[in-house]
Amino acid sequence: MTHDLFSNFQSRGLVHQSTDPDALRQWLAGGSRRVYAGFDPTADSLHVGHLVALMLLRRVAAAGHEPVALVGGATGMIGDPSGRSEERNLLSPAELAANVAGVERQIRAILETTGQTVHVVNNADWMRGVGYLEFLRDVGKHVPLSQMLGKDSVKSRLERDGGLSYTEFSYMLLQAWDFVHLSDALDCRVQIGGSDQWGNITAGIELGRRLRARDLHGITCPLLTKADGTKMGKTASGAIWLDPRRTSPYRFYQYWINLDDDDAGRCAERLTELPLDALTSLAALRTANPAARDTQKRLAEELTRLVHGEQGLTAARQATAIFFGAEIGGLDDAALAEIFADVPSREFARTALDGDGLPLVEALEATGLAATKSAARRTIEQGGAYVNNRRINDVAHRLKAAELSGTATLVLRSGKKSYALARFL
RNA sequence: GGGGAGUUUCCCGAGCGGUCAAAGGGGUCAGACUGUAAAUCUGAUGGCUAUGCCUUCGCAGGUUCGAAUCCUGCACUCCCCA
């Protein structure tokens, strides 16, 4: 177990900016410390973009310190302008409460497996009772405007057409106060976050010095972006979420499998707990035999297990085998439903299979795999139609009960990747 | 206000009385190849109860055995001159 957390971060490329490294090391060397990172509940689930911060906290735990995860029930009502080009829409209190609950659950699930004591706190708990005048006198008074205006998050927004509202402008005061509050309540003196958080973190450090004459520390890690410049965790069809109801374990797994080599290497470094020598040998394998995609596989495995558990990983792997050609058989309806969670399905009357059966052409059209029956015919003629992953070349093919996998399901496929379930009830 | 050009299938764009469901390109889909990448190559690409039938070429009428193609009116777009 590494005790020098800061060096551990550095060796994995996780330090973008930090306050004085010597002071930081010294504080962390003093025993079991508390280190915090904040999560704003903008949705009822975290997504892949939050994994860096979650992993930072796991590393904190692994180094023998206690991770503190702050869920922004209060700050979430305002919206962080950092790294944003436009004013946020405010969430309703009900939405926010649901989001807080969802995010808290995920954070606990991921951090508690470290075995270390985990603190999950909600800044609404200490912000709620604070009056506006009180806040201005106790906090606002100690933050110079020049300092606030100097932050990148504010400057960049002021230069834009949209500007920013007073509300979002004030966001950093809340986060600054959070830091000071946590240093009071938990003796938590280190805050970590993405590089876009530097302004907010230093605001808290300043405030701690002015208000408490206390030394607070901060580390930011580089934002994880893909080689093509897009944000990590965003796909054409939307974000990759940690909640299996939003993103199935299979799609989550596949996201990592499909990363290009450089991105996969960086993610393995920053998002997994693989030891450094394992990373080195993966890098060697990547150069020697890129086609094997060992890094992607290992990364997908580690992260899927972390987020969805051993069971989720098994399901994702099973789905992967099937999606890449394995014939389908011996799976019951429940397993099929789980594996094909992302796949559109369409229900038919059971009786459609009786007699001559249901023309494949019709099934392809009804499930949306083909836009029209003509298109369905074409697909079949060109060898792109599959039932239970067996290619069907006969345009006149009719589906019969004997072909069902499970008791009521047929897996239809068009081309390499488009699947649909036909369920006969 | 005057003069000119145009409106074609998902997009761009040819067609200018029958051989037009309409060239070519793009896109899309499928196949081969491949690392579940990129590129490349091949095929397909209005619909259907399908060797035929129906619908499509701005809209509405008309001429003709027959119109995306000719005529009339209408709508919209663009350019030039005032």
Compose a concise summary of this entry.
This protein has 425 residues and is α/β, with parallel strands linked by helices. 45% of the residues lie in helices and 14% in strands.
Indicate how many domains the architecture comprises. 3
Shape: elongated
Strand order of the largest sheet: 1-6-5-2-3-4
- Which stretches of 5+ consecutive residues score pLDDT under 50? none
* Helical content band: 40-55%
Query: Helical element count?
Result: 18
CATH class of the largest domain: Alpha Beta
Residue-averaged pLDDT, rounded? 90
Describe the fold and architecture.
The chain has 425 residues and is of the alpha/beta class. It has 3 domains: 5-221, Rossmann fold; 234-324, Orthogonal Bundle (Tyrosyl-Transfer RNA Synthetase); 338-424, Structural Genomics Hypothetical 15.5 Kd Protein In mrcA-pckA Intergenic Region, Chain A (Roll), CATH 3.10.290. Helix content is 45%, strand content 14%. It contains 18 helices and 15 strands. The protein has helices at residues 5-11, 21-29, 51-62, 93-111, 124-127, 132-138, 145-150, 152-159, 166-169, 171-185, 198-212, 249-257, 261-271, 276-288, 294-323, 333-339, 360-366, 373-381; strands spanning 17-18, 34-39, 66-71, 119-122, 188-194, 217-221, 234-235, 238-239, 345-348, 358-359, 385-387, 390-391, 398-399, 409-414, 418-424. The strands form 4 sheets. A 6-stranded mixed sheet has the order 1-6-5-2-3-4, with helices on both faces. Helix 13 (261-271) crosses helix 15. It is elongated and about 85 Å long. The model has no long low-confidence stretch (mean pLDDT 90). It binds one RNA strand of 82 nucleotides through helix 15 and helix 18.
